[in-house]
TrEMBL record:
Organism of provenance: Actinocorallia herbida
Recorded superkingdom: Bacteria
Alphabetized InterPro entries for the sequence: DinB/YfiT-like (IPR034660), MST-like (IPR007061)
Xref: Pfam families: MST
Protein name (database record): Uncharacterized protein DUF664
Length: 179
């Protein structure tokens, strides 16, 4: 069991190997995001800031999609699970963002948690068999097959960037601020 900080986030290991350090930082970023969304109702998850249409609910659904895209679809080559497999992404490339407004908080959190759980399992399977150098089975839109190491770093970056958005959105909802 790892140590947790005052917000309930797991502290990345100070002396872990590469895989433990990278997964530790990804879990820290995930927990930061969960903390920013915690205890919000539907109105809180639909709140926007200024002219942006971004919401915490949209971020929850988008990050669930990102998790499944990188760890399930790309890294392992498995098909996208529901609901992603039923979306016409060509007709509506931002479906994950705007469709969240019609979802309950319970549904959004369950969707995100299920995606994170699948990602953790997918990554654990790779780490026990092939390691961080293994290449993604399915290519990116550009045709590349990034390593599991690259995918981990990309997800850390994705969460860190969106955690900045989540900070602003959460503060606009109820004034809650913090790291």
């Amino acid at each position: 069991m790892s140590d947790v900080d005052e917000y309930g986030r797991p502290v990345p290991p100070l002396d872990g190997d590469e895989a433990a350090t990278l997964t530790g930082f990804l879990d820290f970023q995930r927990a930061t995001f969960a903390w920013k969304c915690r205890d919000l109702d539907a109105a809180g998850l639909r709140a926007t800031v200024g002219p942006s249409s971004m919401t915490l609910g949209g971020l929850l659904k988008h990050l669930a999609y990102v998790e499944d895209t990188w760890f399930t679809l790309r890294l392992h080559g498995a098909p996208h699970p529901a609901p992603w497999n039923a979306v016409d992404w060509h007709a509506d490339p931002d479906w994950d963002w705007h469709s969240a407004a019609a979802d309950t908080p319970e549904h959004l959190f369950a969707l995100w948690h299920a995606s994170v759980d699948r990602s953790r399992a997918a990554l654990a399977a790779v780490l026990t068999t092939a390691g961080l150098a293994v290449r993604a089975v399915n290519p990116t839109r550009e045709g590349t097959h990034p390593s599991a190491r690259w995918i981990l770093c990309h997800l850390i970056e994705e969460y860190a960037r969106h955690n900045g958005h989540a900070d602003l959105l959460r503060e606009s909802v109820d004034g809650r601020t913090g790291e």
